[in-house]
Amino acid sequence: MLLSGCNMEVLTPKGDIGSHEKSLILIALGLMAIVAIPVIAMTLWFAWRYRSSNKQATYAPNWSHSTKIEVVVWTIPAIIIVILAVITWTSSHALDPYKPLESEAKPVTVQVVSMDWKWLFVYPEYGVASVNELVMPVDRPVNFQITSDSVMNAFFIPQLGSQIYAMAGMETKLHLIAREQGTYAGLSSNFSGEGFSDMHFKAIATSEDGFKDWIAKAKATQATLDDDSYKALAQPSEKVPVAYYGNVAPNLFVGVINKHMGEMSHDSMHGEMPMDMPHDAPQDSMQGMQMDMHHNEGGDAVSSNITPAKAEK
Fold first, then answer.
1. How far is 33 from 28, CA to CA, in rounded Å?
2. What one-character-per-residue DSSP string does 150-202 give?
3. What residues pair up with 172 in beta bridges, in sequence order?
């Protein structure tokens, strides 16, 4: 009754990944119930059976060991742990978020940038972008390339499955597919500051024709997402309405990654070792990393020749 007002989105999946994850949740719950339900039942039964008023119950104050009980309480949990280990190993590989989905349909690439406190979605194949609205065709895989232009966030569409982090200077990947038309809730599941509670977006799964119509609608918008408009958009703001850009500057997504890569390279040139750089790294590798960014006199990154592959690495 207390949960009657809740929307159990994770348990009502609308995509392949979400369906697999729902099965994993139910399997894990069932295996845990094998232990939990008998323990709860026996706790209640023991309390009733051995109550002080029951004179017929066995009284054994010197009892200390039972081989049969030891076998049961150790063997059953051990078997469950082995089963869970096998399931975890196989599902971790099968549902790897970096693993492309097998489909005869051509995938759609969407570049995602998390900001304070909104989501930017860039469709590089179509040259359009949107804020706080993600549109995808059903039955076509969506290849997400995800980064952050601020603090770490977490990209999550519960009914489609798989949460993954968005981090500045890095690119993470996620592959999802929607099997039913509808509008699904998207959110950041990682606290990121004052406007976090309103950092939501709509994930709209539509038909192929509906997707084409949406692309045409976005293209018809006069707004252009260039360096100046992007800087204005990146300023912290809350409850940002849906917006469309009919023209997007080339390599915008890679530029966002490179901007923060430049900050890390700048730190290294001032004696601060990047977290993932071993202290005994060869000098030529350090020099090579420093050459990837050029800085002006104030230390700000002004240009970069870091390729997408290097940025991802």
1. 9
2. SS-EEEE-TTT---EEE-BT--EEEEE-B-S-EEEEEEE-S--STTGGG-EEE
3. 146
Tokens 């923060």 locate to 260
What is the distance between the alpha carbons of residues 277 and 287, in angstroms, rounded to a whole number?
A: 13
Tell the residue number behind the tokens 């940025």, with chain if given.
311
Q: What percent of the chain has pLDDT over 90?
A: 72
As a whole number of angstroms, the distance between CA 7 and CA 111 comes to 28
Q: Which tokens in the block code for residue 145? A: 């390339």
28-37, 53-62, 173-182, 277-286 — which is least confidently predicted? Answer: 277-286
Q: Given the DSSP bridges, would you call strands 247-248 and 224-225 parallel, antiparallel or unpaired?
A: parallel
Cα separation of 258 and 260, whole Å?
5
Tokens of 134: 């993600």
Angstrom distances, CA of residue 116 to CA of 120, 187, 190, 310: 11, 13, 12, 26
Other beta carbons less than 10 A from residue 223's beta carbon: 14
> Is the pLDDT reported for residue 284 higher than 60?
no
DSSP element (H, E) containing 203: strand 200-206
Cβ-proximal residues to 99 (8 Å cutoff; 6+ apart), any chain: 93, 175
Q: How many CB atoms lie within 10 A of CB 28?
A: 15
Nearest to 128 by CA among 224, 15, 23, 35: 224
Residue in 65, 90, 121, 92 with CA at minimum distance from that of residue 240: 121
Q: How large is the average pLDDT for residues 58-67?
A: 89
